[in-house]
């Protein structure tokens, strides 16, 4: 059980999202960095879909109301536990009365705090994920008490674990992101794949606006709105890409040149605004499936 002492940025509860409601206009939502979310849970003995605390573009200070073990993963943060500083991708024991501070530094946007036993959060439409625009869940505020469930094993056995993240997910501010062709790929030449892009300051959980050389279309006809998923890359009328993220709307009318593969969504999610230099590479559907299979398995602690 943790009490929020101080916070800034966008802090919310997330799991792996709510499925089967896109036809009603409800986004999947869930963790912006699904890989970091899953590993944080595994480090403290939770299921991969257990609720975590997502810390985005800010900081949080928590007061432990009872003994517990937590893990923090992601990119762009460091952890202060009582008088000790811990790196990300580790689990550590927290004694009742101690403060845990997750501090923002450079190198990413999102961190995930998992607590042994998982956070005890009511589900809406089968998920505990917060979707602010739709009024599902709430942003975490100072004074909130964050309840947790029963740990899977003794707290001390879950502490002092770490995960060798760079062996499996190489977070970078100069990533090459793999994509598969979108339904309107034929409208565009290869300029999108030959140029470099930067994340605009105008980004959020719904979408990442990118800035770079204008992408021209050989077909100016308007589209009827059609289904859209996380990772869809739309090209606006100004010739700039928008990548749909966790809170992606379920339909859209801009042409879609490509879709970021699931295995590389964490890399894009952790790119910093006006700092990262992003390139895209087109791969086959078979390559995307194989990469996801490899990435989905490595987080399991043996």
Q: What topology emerges from the helices and strands here?
A:
Layout: E1 2-7, E2 10-14, H1 34-43, E3 52-56, E4 60-64, E5 68-74, E6 77-81, E7 84-86, E8 90-94, E9 99-104, E10 110-115, E11 145-146, H2 155-158, E12 176-181, H3 191-194, E13 198-203, E14 207-211, E15 226-227, E16 232-235, E17 241-244, E18 251-252, E19 256-260, H4 265-269, E20 279-282, H5 285-298
Parallel strand pairs: 12-20
Antiparallel strand pairs: 1-4, 1-11, 2-3, 3-10, 4-9, 5-8, 5-10, 6-7, 6-9, 12-19, 13-14, 14-17, 15-18, 16-17, 16-19
The unreliable regions are none
Report the C-alpha radius of gyration, rounded: 19 Å
Largest sheet: 7 strands, mixed
Mean pLDDT: 94
Describe the structure in brief.
The chain has five helices and 20 strands.
Structure description:
By secondary structure, the protein is mainly beta. The protein folds into two domains: 162 residues, no CATH class; 123 residues, Cyclophilin. Helix content is 12%, strand content 31%. It contains five helices and 20 strands. The strands form four sheets. It has a seven-stranded mixed β-sheet. The chain has a six-stranded antiparallel β-sheet with strand order 7-6-9-4-1-11, with no helix packed on it. A hairpin with a 5-residue loop joins β16 and β17. The longest helix is centred in the C-terminal third of the chain and has 14 residues. The radius of gyration is 19 Å and the shape is elongated.
């Amino acid at each position: 059980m943790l009490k929020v002492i101080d916070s800034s940025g966008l802090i919310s509860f997330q799991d792996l999202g709510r499925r089967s409601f896109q036809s009603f206009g409800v986004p999947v939502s869930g963790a912006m960095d699904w890989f970091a979310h899953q590993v944080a849970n595994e480090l403290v003995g939770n299921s991969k879909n257990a609720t975590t605390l997502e810390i985005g573009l800010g900081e949080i200070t928590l007061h432990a109301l009872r003994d517990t073990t937590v893990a923090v993963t992601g990119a762009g943060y460091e952890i202060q536990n009582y008088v000790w500083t811990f790196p990300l991708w580790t689990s550590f024991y927290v004694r009742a009365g101690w403060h845990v501070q997750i501090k923002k530094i450079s190198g990413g946007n999102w961190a995930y705090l998992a607590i042994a036993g998982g956070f005890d959060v009511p589900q809406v439409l089968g998920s505990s994920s917060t979707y602010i625009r739709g009024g599902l869940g709430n942003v975490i505020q100072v004074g909130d008490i964050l309840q947790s469930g029963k740990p899977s094993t003794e707290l001390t056995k879950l502490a002092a674990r770490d995960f060798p993240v760079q062996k499996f997910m190489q977070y970078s501010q100069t990533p090459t992101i793999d994509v598969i062709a979108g339904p309107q790929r034929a409208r565009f030449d290869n300029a999108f794949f030959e140029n470099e892009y930067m994340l605009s300051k105008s980004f959020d959980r719904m979408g990442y606006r990118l800035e770079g050389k204008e992408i021209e279309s050989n077909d100016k006809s308007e589209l009827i709105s059609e289904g859209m998923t996380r990772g869809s890359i739309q090209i606006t009328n100004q010739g700039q890409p928008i990548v749909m993220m966790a809170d992606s709307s379920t339909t859209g009318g801009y042409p879609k040149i490509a879709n970021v593969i699931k295995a590389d969504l964490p890399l894009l999610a952790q790119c910093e605004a006006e700092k990262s230099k992003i390139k895209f590479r087109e791969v086959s559907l078979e390559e995307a499936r194989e990469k996801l299979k490899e990435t989905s398995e490595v987080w399991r602690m043996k």
